[in-house]
Write a structure and sequence with these properties.
By secondary structure, this protein is mainly alpha-helical. The chain is built from 16 helices and 5 strands. The protein has a 3-stranded parallel β-sheet. A two-stranded parallel ribbon has the order 4-5. One of its GO terms (molecular function) is ATP binding.
């Protein structure tokens, strides 16, 4: 059987360059590689609601924003099925059965959920849906029999949870219905978790440290010029630090050797630039201008494509609706197999009927 991709994002804001290098860019490459039989990309609105129950309008608005960002990056509805999680009721049904295969203490050990509970001040009152979202994520993945899940490293615990559910289900019901998925992480370490422009560990909307895919050129430039570098690099002649220097982390994530030929021909590659910075004599502004040139080049076509799609919002919704129809059909097929395996297909089970008739024969 061919390899199948499923991945997705919570629609809680526009997508930023952290999403882009961490996952989106790779997804487009995978989509175009021809190595995958099917590609499913899910806008995880139901999961977004697990910690935004009091703000449904935010989720509702951002379903479209995320869809536009997807299309802008080059996800192509002809090659990938792009759909909205809440429109696939089979996912809830699967979750319901998987819940019986997972213990509360197992969920409590999930490090990603743990840190999210802290970030959201949920300690005193965790919504049940939020607590259990790793189980629902297992449904998202298994409903499509995904073999490959390209995501950021923070999703590793969800994949581990999914694999456990798959193994347990297949063992209990003596079946091979469910497929154990693998995580696919970006190869470039700098892309695993791109820090915010303020140097904080994560790019996040609430910290106001994001560069969005849809940002205008002057906004991008200003965000780069204000970026956190090495606070001790005061004079140009001072030796500078690369570690924890956000501008260099972004260069690690974005810069190619050709960019030097194009924008900074005094250096052959990033190693030379870093060495000069560490020696002293290289100013932050020069490095930031270089990063700006690279990012502007990368983001311009994305922003322009987004503007094209923005002109016809109705067809973006239509594209999502069509994607939901395809996804629903696939998920329904898996759910059917799951119910068969669980033997809760009472009305299709002739053997069961005969068995019960015999039982009550006198
Ligand atoms: N948890 C993912 C995120 O926060 C979104 C998501 C939901 C997902 N279901 C998924 C990702 C299934 C991969 C596979 O971005």
């Amino acid at each position: 059987m061919g390899k199948i991709i499923l991945t997705g994002d919570r629609p809680t804001g526009r997508l930023h360059i952290g999403h882009y290098v961490g996952s989106l860019k790779g997804r487009v490459e995978l989509q175009n590689s021809g190595e995958f039989e099917k590609v499913f990309i899910m806008i995880a609105d139901a999961q977004a609601l697990t910690d935004n129950a009091d703000n449904p309008e935010k989720v509702r608005q951002n379903v479209l924003e995320v869809a536009l960002d997807y299309l802008a990056c080059g996800l192509d509805p002809k090659k990938s099925t792009i759909f909205v999680q809440s429109q696939i009721p089979q996912l809830c049904e699967l979750t319901c059965y998987y819940m019986n295969l997972v213990t509360v203490s197992r969920l409590q050990r999930n490090p990603t959920v743990k840190s999210e509970i802290q970030q959201r001040n949920f300690e005193a009152s965790i919504p049940v849906g939020f607590f259990a979202y790793p189980i629902s994520q297992a449904s998202d993945i298994t409903a499509f029999k995904a073999t490959t899940v390209p995501v950021g490293e923070d999703q590793e615990p969800m994949l581990e949870q999914t694999r456990e559910i798959v193994r347990r289900f297949n063992m209990i019901y003596n079946t091979d219905t469910l497929v154990e998925p693998e995580i696919l992480l970006p190869k470039n370490k700098a892309c695993l978790r791109l820090p915010g422009t303020d140097g904080k560990a994560k790019m996040s909307k609430s910290l106001g440290n994001c560069i969005y895919l849809s940002d205008e050129p002057d906004v991008i430039k200003q965000k780069i010029m204000n970026m956190y570098t090495d606070p001790n690099h005061i004079k140009v002649s001072d030796p500078g630090q690369i570690e924890g220097n956000t501008v260099f982390t972004y260069l690690d994530a974005f810069c190619k050797d050709e960019d030097f030929t194009k924008y900074l021909p005094d250096y052959a590659n990033l190693d030379e630039l870093k060495a000069h910075y560490q020696r002293g004599g290289l100013g932050d502004v020069k490095v930031k201008k270089f990063l700006n040139a690279i990012l502007q080049e990368e983001l311009e076509p994305i922003r322009n494509r987004r503007k094209e799609y923005q002109k016809d919002i109705a067809s973006v919704y239509k594209m999502l609706k069509d994607g939901c129809d395809v996804a629903r059909e696939t998920a329904a097929k898996t759910l059917h197999e799951v119910k068969d395996a669980m033997k809760i297909n009472y009305f299709d089970d002739v053997e069961l009927l005969n068995q019960q008739i015999n039982k009550y024969k006198d």
